[in-house]
Design a protein that fits this description.
The protein is of the alpha+beta class. It contains twelve helices and 33 strands.
Length: about 850
């Protein structure tokens, strides 16, 4: 019994011993202890700039006005997250909460060292640390990474950024970012995997990224940019979709840095799929009062043609806009395609449905610091309160991108104040729109040439275009001023104004010089995306000048002694052809024709002095080229007419057409058919001037000199000036092919071609009625001037209608210095007096 009592007593003592701590802990949880203080009992130590009450405000009391452990922990975390303090410690003693802080220093200045490629101002706008702000070490590390990212975006992946903090008195510091820029990291190779239909050479034309080469320093397309590579994936996909490959996928764009080459290797993986043609085009409308077939004429998709996603998108856009015009503002056109995998065809059905009734509540424009709001808003065909139309929104985005005022344009929609309202947000990033260029070049026609120009595409932020240029060359000089208002009176009509002056000096191709000064206003209309119309008025004054060696005659046949012939004797062509019976002499020994004289039309124009031409005209331009700079597919047609006679001294109707058709053939070879034609018609009784005629040479048939073909003065003692013609035609067939053994980025390709054409029917002056001269005009028997029979007119010229033809080869270089072309052509057929020039070179640059 006593033993049992002792055992039970021991167990009880043990239970009491273990239960006491548990009870104490439970009491601490249920009853506020000495560690829990009220807000008024918070003591702040170590603060200098931060107010005591600011620190206390982070500790919010719980129920009953007391601070629990949870509120203390939350306050501690909040103080640390402010970034104002290096360290925060909390102690609890005697019912008080002691908060000890160590404040972060203040940044006195921020400096950048070693940065040569990127300016301080650009880096300063990108980092978060600011002068007079609080130093945060995590933020400094983040800024260093941000600076490195800026350099990587500019192609320098070897960049290193080291931040340094220099302590100063009064708890202030200087923050120094030391940058080691490293060399530019380029793209060393671009490869394509899975492409069968199109060669890698062709696909390199589609993308924007370029491989590095010796001339890469003149551009930046070879610099590795991940955003550009990603955009290239979409360009490749769209190229295939445009050419019938509806199932194409650009699976990946793999990039790998090669330490040995110190550059990136980019590989695009492509799954082409099959090429499809259009089997059927159908229309289905769920709107009872709208027959889908009324939209058929707006379809750019044709049965039998290759599937073209771009044409499909434009068709949807135009159909949706037309439905809106017909009163169906909420109609939505959705194309559906049904593939026949065996026949490789696709049937397209345009489904027209009634969309949700959504209206535009507001259009917000963001990011335009320089461009005026109205310049952006006028590109929209809708405004606040209109029915929301996605096709019109997409068109506005495309127009804004085409302005070339912005680096990026993105239009998104946000919910409005109600379910049927939407807010359009236009996010823009502006870019520089001004250009200053110094250009130089050389051509076999104009010789050495230099130009200085300054232009602004977004003048005063109002969307205006302005340009001033000065040209000075070996044979050509002048200046021009241009101004364009793209939206005249808020209509989509472009008003252009041009003021120009040009002086063409005599050279080996023409014996005379011309000086022209004029003014030309014009109006431009965009009828469709591929069709434009321009209406213009031109007024200019023109005069001819002769070099001294062609002005060495005057009307005094003899010198003062009356016997010695005057070497400066300057009779009319008719007088010289007839001789001077009154003096019993002829002109063959007077130094006029024998040292070369300008032709009758030239001398007549010289006597007339200045001539004023006033004309109205228009141009129609049809353009479906895939690339305006380096076309491989499409049609370009330019038709123009000018009527002179709206005042002025001359009258005529001049018509010309120029057609170029490009088509891809095989193995990256591009075929080109180029056709030209023109006609000059006389109006009324006004005579045509020689200067109004068409002058042709290598611009019509290669292998001939400038002004080298067509009617020509054949006086054996004259300068054999080209007279020009009132009619011309020309046709050219050309094959352009790359040099496959050279890198694509060199931009060099060759061509072989055959040209044929003709210039004929001179209708200018052929005689000159003189006064105050003996026997003018007329023929006198016995003249010793060896001119062909029928020279009584004073002008002997060749006006034969001869077909000129040639074959040749060319070298085309899309160089960083500008487009350059060298041609060597051999004439096959030519006129008796044509001038041959087998070699031709032309080109220029801006730097």
């Amino acid at each position: 019994m006593n033993v049992g009592m002792r055992v039970r007593g021991g167990l009880l003592a043990t239970l009491i011993m273990f239960a006491m701590p548990v009870a104490v802990a439970l009491a601490a949880m249920l009853v506020p202890s000495a560690a829990v203080a009220q807000t008024s009992s918070i003591v702040v130590e170590g603060n200098r700039r931060v107010d005591v009450e600011t620190v206390r405000s982070y500790f919010r009391p719980g129920p009953g006005g007391r601070l629990g452990q949870g509120q203390i922990d939350d306050g501690l975390k909040a103080l640390i997250e402010t970034g104002l303090f290096q360290d925060v410690r909390i102690n609890q003693a005697g019912g008080r909460l002691v908060v000890t802080v160590v404040e972060n220093p203040v940044i006195g200045r921020i400096a950048f060292e070693g940065n040569k490629k990127i300016k301080d101002e650009q880096i300063s706008t990108e980092i978060q640390s600011k002068p007079r702000g609080t130093l945060s070490r995590p933020m400094v590390q983040s800024d260093a990474l941000r600076i490195a990212e800026i350099y990587r975006r500019s192609g320098r992946y070897d960049v290193r950024v080291v931040p340094e903090i220099i302590e100063q008195p009064n708890n202030r510091v200087d923050l120094i970012f030391t940058v080691t820029e490293g060399s530019k990291t380029g793209v060393k190779s671009i490869e394509f995997v899975g492409n069968v239909a199109y060669s890698s050479y062709r696909l390199k034309d589609v993308i924007k990224t370029r491989e590095s080469n010796l001339l890469s320093f003149l551009g930046g397309a070879d610099v590795y940019d991940p955003d550009r590579v990603e955009a290239d994936r979409d360009l490749i996909r769209r190229y295939y979709l445009k050419n019938g490959y509806a199932d194409v996928q650009v699976v990946a764009a793999l990039t790998e840095y090669d330490p040995e080459k110190k550059g990136f290797l980019v590989t695009f993986k492509i799954e082409e799929g099959q090429q499809y043609r259009i089997a059927q085009v159908n229309f289905a409308s769920s709107i009872g009062t709208l027959d889908g077939n009324v939209l058929r004429s707006f379809s750019r998709v044709r049965v039998g043609s290759l599937y073209n996603a771009e044409a499909l998108e434009k068709s949807v856009e135009e159909m949706q806009i037309e439905a809106s015009r017909r009163g169906y503002a909420f109609a939505i056109v959705r194309p559906r395609g049904e593939r026949n995998f065996e026949a490789h065809t696709v049937s397209i059905t345009f489904a027209i449905d009634e969309g949700p009734r959504t209206y535009i509540e507001r259009i917000n424009v963001r990011g335009n610091t320089r461009t005026r709001d109205y310049v952006i808003r006028r590109e929209f065909d809708l405004s606040e309160g209109d029915a929301y139309n996605r096709a019109l929104v997409d068109r506005a985005e495309r127009r804004l991108k085409n302005l070339d005022f912005f680096k990026s344009v993105k239009i998104t929609s946000e919910p409005g104040s109600s379910s049927d309202r939407v807010i359009l947000v236009v996010d823009l990033e502006e870019k520089s729109t001004g250009d200053f260029s110094v250009s130089g070049g050389y051509s076999t026609t104009d010789g050495a040439l230099a130009e200085v120009s300054i232009s602004e595409r977004n003048f005063l932020g109002r969307g205006l275009y302005a340009k001033a240029s000065v040209t000075y060359g070996q044979y050509a000089r002048g200046y021009s001023l241009s101004f364009v208002e793209p939206y005249l009176l808020d209509y989509r009509v472009a008003l252009g104004l041009d003021l120009f002056q040009r002086e063409q000096l005599a050279n080996s191709y023409i014996s005379y010089g011309t000086s022209t000064i004029g003014f030309s206003p014009r109006l431009g209309f965009s009828l469709r995306e591929d069709l434009s119309l321009q209406v213009r008025y031109s007024i200019y004054e023109q005069k001819i000048s002769l070099p001294d060696y062609l002005r060495n005659c005057n009307n005094n046949q003899f010198l003062a002694d009356g016997v010695t012939p005057n070497p400066s004797y300057n009779p009319s062509p008719a007088f010289m052809a007839n001789g001077n019976p009154a003096s019993g002499s002829n002109t063959s020994a007077l130094g006029c024709y024998f040292d070369g004289e300008a032709s009758l039309p030239v001398r007549k124009e010289l006597q007339n002095g200045k001539t004023l031409t006033s004309s109205i005209g228009y141009s129609l331009n049809y353009n479906t080229l895939d690339n305006n700079k380096n076309p491989t597919d499409g049609l370009l047609v330019d038709f123009k007419q000018d009527f002179a006679g709206v005042g002025g001294d001359v009258s005529y109707l001049k018509t010309a057409i120029d057609l170029k058709y490009y088509t891809p053939l095989v193995a990256d070879i591009v075929g080109l058919i180029h056709g030209q034609a023109g006609i000059l018609n006389k109006i009324g009784n006004s005579d045509l001037r020689m200067l109004d005629h068409f002058q042709m040479g290598s611009n019509l048939v290669r292998g001939f000199a400038p002004n080298g073909i067509g009617p020509r003065d054949i006086n054996p003692y004259g300068t054999s000036d080209s007279l020009g013609g009132s009619k011309y035609w020309g046709i050219s067939a050309e094959l352009q092919m790359p040099f496959w053994f050279l890198p694509k980025e060199v931009g060099l390709k060759g061509s072989v071609y055959a040209d044929a054409g003709g210039l004929y029917d001179y209708q200018g002056p052929t005689s000159w009625a003189f006064t105050n001269e003996v026997n003018a005009p007329g023929c006198v028997k016995g003249t010793t001037i060896p001119l062909p029979a029928g020279s009584c007119t004073g002008l002997v010229y060749d006006n034969g209608n001869v077909v000129r033809s040639s074959v040749g080869v060319g070298l085309i270089w899309a160089s960083p210095f500008g487009p350059l072309r060298i041609d060597y052509a051999v004439p096959l057929t030519k006129g008796a007096y044509d001038r041959v020039q087998q070699f031709k070179f032309g080109g220029g640059t801006s730097f």
